[in-house]
Amino acid sequence: MRMIKIFDTTLRDGEQSPGASMNVKEKLALAKQLARLGVDVIEAGFAISSPGDFEAIKTIGGEVDGPIICSLARAKEVDIKRAWEALNNVPKRRIHTFHSTSDIHLKYQFRISREDALKRSVEMVKLAKSYVDDVEFSPMDATRTDISYLCDVIEAVIEAGALTINIPDTVGYSIPNEFGNMIKTICKKVKNIKNAVISVHCHNDLGLAVANSLIAVLNGAGQIECTINGIGERAGNCSLEEVVMSLRTRRDIFHADTKINTEEIIRTSRLVTKITGISVQPNKAIVGANAFAHESGIHQDGLLKEKTTYEIIKPESVGLTSTKLVLGKHSGRHAFKTRLKELGYVLSDEELNNAFERFKRLADQKKDIFDEDIEALITEDVAKVPEIYSLVDHYIESGLKKKPTATVTLKVDGKKIKKKKYGDGPVDATYKAIASITNTKSNLLKFEVKSITGGTDALGEVLVTLEEGGRTVRGHGADTDIIVASAKAYINALNKLEARKKV
Ligand code: KIV
Ligand code: ZN
Fold first, then answer.
1. Atom of ligand 1 minimally distant from the CA of 168
2. How many domains in the chain?
3. How far is the CA of 167 from the centre of ligand 1 (A)?
4. Stated pTM of the model
5. What is the 3-state secondary structure (H, E, C) of 11-42?
6. Residue 136 CA: which ligand is closest?
7. Is 285 part of a structural domain of the chain?
8. 169 with 201: CB under 8 angstroms?
């Protein structure tokens, strides 16, 4: 059985999804979860692209054990030096450098010859190699590159010290048969290919990213680059959960597997949704709400008789357990801490105190506390940013014959401000009051409400997307009162906008 390496780029390419940008705290929380999931490599960012990315790579490198931590770098001296500065104290580190190789990119974007692109790639791999042993090189837009030139570049950068050669289908243009043949040709034509691992990085513009990655494995690829929920530039990247479960479920075909702890898949997927605000479609394979729901009577009949009649993957194997009652009003701090640990969260004393306080408040409002409720409490902390605005009080009047009115008090930079507004409904009135207090110029692009568990006392979760001056942010809020959850989500997004303005 070959072991395929999983290179997760949720924090880098995934973050290139419009509006998905994450702060350092959010990236660290996600990186810790990716380590629990068992990925081999975390591409934690693109060090030169922003101070936030630089900080995230450094912080993740210092605090996350297990996976190799990687920074992206263009084939430029300044990029590679910056990647090294972010990684220099990280025990398991990689620099991933890239240069376009297709004639389209060389002619129109870089305006350099094939020879110059090859020379620059070799020089920059050598430079990266002078800093770290583990160097990966990507010939960008490989699938639209002349194959003979592509093989020359690959051979030269392996000679220069690259240990991983990543073949990106940058614009999601390739189809499986063609992509499989490309990997096969590389294995045949590149003389020193045995000295490197072949990786693939497929985009999903034609919906073929997972299929292309799988055919690459059949033709010799040993690493797959992917993201949780398939998020990423444009139509996204190869989805980690789909490619991993395909390999695991069809080991008979692939004779390959990964070291992913698949029981962590659902939790990781939910965390990505909460942090980025990008929900997965209900029919999404593996992690969609309907992925294990059987609606047809014939299917249900079969399932009741024998699960394997209509189930190719056990829901438990991806971490989908039936909602478990865990705690309630009388549960103490020790039980809470133990359950958190079982769920994989290790908090500092201060974080634990804050979370326990919120848990007690929730237990007063809600009789039964489920795992999902606890996860929502913890994520609320992760999604927090420095608070310029915080909710102090909120009063609603609404009814069949009453014009909805919201009276909201916010603390703005330490000063309390109260406003009363009418609206089409209680949420609209609340948002108008908050907008008036904060004087925001942002536009509300999206408003989504979900219930975290069942029952009328369930925690409601609200995700909002705001836009201002080309910046898009997502806010998250959870509460047993859906109007309060809506207010929290809006305020969280406004705080994120303010934080971004300072970067
Ligand atoms: O899609 C792409 O080509 C990339 C490279 C930087 C690997 O993301
Ligand atoms: Zn990409």
1. 3
2. 3
3. 9
4. 0.85
5. CCCHHHCCCCCCCHHHHHHHHHHHHHHCCCEE
6. 1
7. no
8. yes
